Amino acid sequence: MKVCLTGATGYIGNSLALELAENNYEVHALVRNIHSPNIPVHPNILLFEGNLNNYDTVEKAIEDCESVFHTAAFTRLTCNEVREFYDANVQGTANVLNASKENGVKKVIFTSSVSVFGPSQPNTLITENQPRMSSYANDYELTKIMAENLVLDYNKMGLPGIILNVSRVYGPGNNSFSNGVNRLASMFLKDRFVFVPSKLHIETNYVFIDDVLKAHILALNNGVAGEKYIIGGENASYEKLFSTILESIESKNPIVKINYNILKSGLFLKSFLDKLALKESSLTPELLDYLFTNRNVSSEKAVSQLGYEITSLKSGMEQTMSFLKNRNHGN
Amino acid sequence: METKYYTLITGASKGFGKAMAIECAKRKMNTVLVSLPNSGLNELADILIRTYNVSVLPIEMDLSLTENCYSLFEQVDKKQIAIKYFINNAGLLSRGFFMDLDINYILTQIKLNVCTPTILIKLFLKNLKQNAPSGIMNVGSMASYFYLPKKQVYGGTKAYLLSFSKSLRRELKPDNVSVSIVCPGGLNTTPSLTYQNRTGSWGSRMSIMNPEDAAILAIDGMLKGKEVIVPGIVNKFYMLLNSILPKPVKDKITSSEMNKFKTEMLCS
Hints:
The complex is a heterodimer. Chain A has a domain at 2-176 and 206-233 and 296-310: NAD(P)-binding Rossmann-like Domain (Rossmann fold). In chain A, 44% of the residues lie in helices and 18% in strands. Chain A is built from eleven helices and twelve strands. In chain A, helix 2 (55-62) crosses helix 3 (82-102), helix 3 (82-102) runs parallel beside helix 4 (139-156) and helix 5 (180-190) crosses helix 11. Chain B has a seven-stranded parallel sheet with strand order 3-2-1-4-5-6-7, with helices on both faces. The longest helix of chain B is centred in the middle third of the chain and has 28 residues, at 103-130. Chain B is globular.
């Protein structure tokens, strides 16, 4: 079966392209630059050079395909140009949906994020029908929900669409902005001391990349059009995340806590100076708060309706650390 | 036994109404929440009950129909619910130039923004008087004060609410029922409005607020019995400008806004 995939050089998209190719799908991969180092290489993968904002190139990649995996997104949270997010995430999604509709695509799987639901409330797991309890915290969340609404609009117009709300992904794969846990884990491998903000009780959900890939294929086969599925792993506090990482590399290196509020004030100053210098900050106070937000989720709907299975944080992290060790040796 | 009091909020499933419903729950105030069917009201009620351990009664109905206003009153009355605060928030926003507006849209807008709050206050006034000291809060807008293109009918309905609230406040003073009006500026409510707000001019971007922040100030003002609540420093500053700037200057600002709309139209 021919399928189109956008975002083939991204963290999820790259691995998903290879997974689909391994499973004998013929993959039309839309990429901005066919010489990118992150291109997935496999005999079943056919590259289409183009851009989400160029409709004709999107349509060329989608033509003849039965299904579309739309994983491409602008995720660089440190960018403060809302236009960049809008063009890729909203306008780009509109182009993918429009081309899919015009070419009689039978199913579109849209990769989204659990962050569109906002923080989880105390003692409550985020489910697919949790109402948003506070305003959109940043342009990424805002444009992803706008894109989700487009998918649902097109679904009503007869283009079957399924939304996967993926939690924080970790595991083997290429380096990109959306791969924060891997970057963190690499720090634990390399550095003697790791400095962390003091809010270690904050709980977020961590999903292993292999589970995310399988979920996409399950959604293609078993997903119901017009539905959202939360694709998560284990809920864990930062404390648990760090200890799991340290255990999996048998490290006894100490973790040094920095007072959260002091760190945040420092970041206020830093991002103010960056703004004066017209520089993009690598970490802003808003991004810090965003990363330290409770996001406990339930993947129950995907488990019961798609047949989705969850890899434990311990097992996933062991595989991740051995991947990262080997990669570092390679360097 | 101590009476269990409730705050009734109309239009509670989305935007500012939802933010006020959440804010009330955070303050341990029980609520009766009203909004259109299938707008996610039951999910909101569930999470408020679970998270904040308060009573929340969701009622789904279209309040632009007069018979539904009566039916809302009857439902609350039958359950003998004591209303302490009544928040008239349900309303329809402005949609464009007068020429292009659908007459039925305008009529529904006038009904929902003007007739509905008027009828509801009339019906619930006895209940509120019994629970005095109590309060009414109507949701106006900065457009209650400013005359802007694209906000003709909307601004008119909100100006009605301002005038109505201020008169009624004086009338109900002896009954210990306070009447307030909150006049927010631009709020980040729906995703598409939020996006529009983020791409606006610097002056308007500065005045935009998140509904949860405006809700804190609105509920504070209502509980203190303030007459007019204008959330946000920038909006207060615009109100001050409005009262001191001479008319020709204001007209100039309005017409430059108008020209912006015109270029937008040419571009789109």
